[in-house]
Amino acid sequence: MTPKCLFTAIATDLEVLRTSNDDAAKLASLKYLGHWVGDIHQPLHVSFADDRGGNSIRASACAPNLHAVWDTCVIEKTLGTDWQTIARALLVGLPDSDRAAWVAVPIAGWANESFQVTRRKSVQYCVRVGTKCVYRQGNETYSEREEEKVVVVNMAYLEQHVPLVRGRLKRAGVRLADVLNRTLGQ
Predict the structure, then answer these.
(1) Burial label, 62 (beta-carbon count in 10 A; 0-12, 13-18, 19+)
(2) Res 30: pLDDT
């Protein structure tokens, strides 16, 4: 079996939606597609394998690791927990020009956008050494059983990054709607 990645998973599930006559398979693909598009827009899902996308970077508060900070903590602590309220708020005032620009970006570009977020100094996911992004100074990659680095996550960290999270959520929603409209017909 070929290992799956977000790119092949998205393509596979879109193909099922396009061609299958099996309603159960289509429903499963629809659910997975929402998950995959969300994942590719979450910066630490598009990062390095050695530290498992930030799972091997401890966070000092609100979540056990940096990956979980970006998966849930930033959202819950700054935007809330009611997904319908969050979704409505994200759509308020969203210009059609932004929507058009976002859907023009190919899927690989979605991942590249997320990866660029992980490389920002303020995220503290990696340490920049020249053009490289390393686990910590003097230690290029994380090795199992070594002491994990710690990122201080406080309200200032969360507030600083909530605009990035809002942007990633908006793009994910707009792009998911677009691929579904193009695949299933409007």
Answers:
(1) middle
(2) 96
Instruction: Say how far residue 19 (Cα) sits from the centre of its chain.
Output: 28
- Give 89-103 pLDDT, tens digit per residue: 999 999 999 999 999
CA distance 34 to 18: 15
- At a CB cut-off of 8 Å and minimum separation 6, what does 132 contact? 140
Spans of all domains in the chain: 6-184
Q: With bands split at pLDDT 50, 70 and 90, how would you rate the model's confidence at 1?
A: very low
Distance between CA 184 and CA 96 in Å, rounded? 21
Q: Class assignment of domain 6-184?
A: mainly alpha
Which H or E run includes 137?
none
Tokens of 132: 């490289």
Contacts of 95 (CB under 8 A, 6+ apart): none
